[in-house]
Structures are given as C-alpha cells and as structure tokens.
Design goal:
1 helix, mainly alpha, 0% strand
Length: 167
C-alpha cells in the first residue's frame, strides 16, 4: 500500500503539476497581457509626456506673448498718463489765461464805465458852460447894444454941439 500511497501521491503531484502548469500558463498569458498593457501604457505615457511638453512650450510661448502685450500696454498706459498730464497742464494754463483775460475784461469794463461817467460829467460841464457862454453873450450883446446906443447918443450930442458951434 505504500505503492498505492506513492501512486496516489504521484497522481496528486501530477494533478498539482498540471494545475500548476495551467496556472503558469495562465500567469504567463496574464504576464503577456500585462506586459502588452504595460507597453501600451508606456507608449501612452510617452505620448502624453510629448503632448505635455508641447503644451508647456505653447503655454510658455503664450505667457511670453502675454508678457510682451502687458509690457506694450504698460508703455501705452505710461504714454497716455504722460499725455493726460500734459493736457492737464495745458488746461491749467488755459484756465489761468482765461482767468487773467476775464480780469482784464473786468478792468477794461470798469475803466470804460469810469470813462463814460467822466464823459457824462464833462458833457454836463460843457452844457453848463455853453449855457453860461450864451448868458454871457446875451449880457455882452446887451451891454454892447447899450454902449452903442450911448455912443450914438453921445456922437449925436457932439455933432449937435458942433453944428451949433459952427452956426
């Protein structure tokens, strides 16, 4: 029965070996599939790394482009700020000039008013003087008429006396 036991063990060992060989075959097949999957994954990984590198380069180029645009915008903003400051300075100067001109206009208007008042005063004085002159002329004419009448009378008297002396 030792032989039977050994034969039974041999059979079991053969079954086990067959089972193990089947498992080795299965594992070998699984290993091949896993190896193929690994190679596919490595290939995909390589493709993804290439794509990642390309994307990184594109992003870097985009970032550089954007930085250049930002620099350009900053320069534009700086120029615009300078133009704004220049315009503000010009506006301030124009405001000052306008203020000065308004002051000059006010002074000119005040002077014109003073001159008008002086003109009116002189005009009134002239009218008063013309009235006085007319009055003085009337008085002079009256006085002259009186003197002429007196002189005429006096001459008549002298003429009359001369006539009497002659006759």
């Amino acid at each position: 029965s030792e032989v039977e036991a050994l034969a039974s063990k041999k059979t079991e060992a053969e079954k086990l070996a067959a089972h193990l060989e089947a498992q080795v075959g299965n594992l070998s097949e699984s290993l091949k599939v896993a190896s193929n999957e690994k190679n596919e994954l490595l290939l995909k990984l390589s493709e993804l790394e290439c794509e990642k590198k390309e994307n990184a380069e594109k992003l870097l180029a985009d970032v550089q482009k954007k930085e250049e645009e930002v620099d350009g915008f900053q320069k534009d903003v700086l120029k615009l700020n300078q133009q704004v400051q220049s315009l503000e300075t010009q506006v301030s100067k124009l405001d000052a000039a306008i203020e000065e001109k308004q002051q000059l206009i006010l002074q000119a208007m005040e002077k014109e008013k003073r001159l008008e008042d002086e003109k009116d005063e002189i005009q009134a004085q002239l009218v008063a003087l013309e009235c006085k002159l007319k009055e003085a002329k009337k008085q002079y004419d009256t006085m002259l008429d009186n003197k002429q009448s007196e002189l005429s009378r006096h001459l008549k008297e002298i003429s009359h006396r001369n006539d009497q002396v002659i006759y």
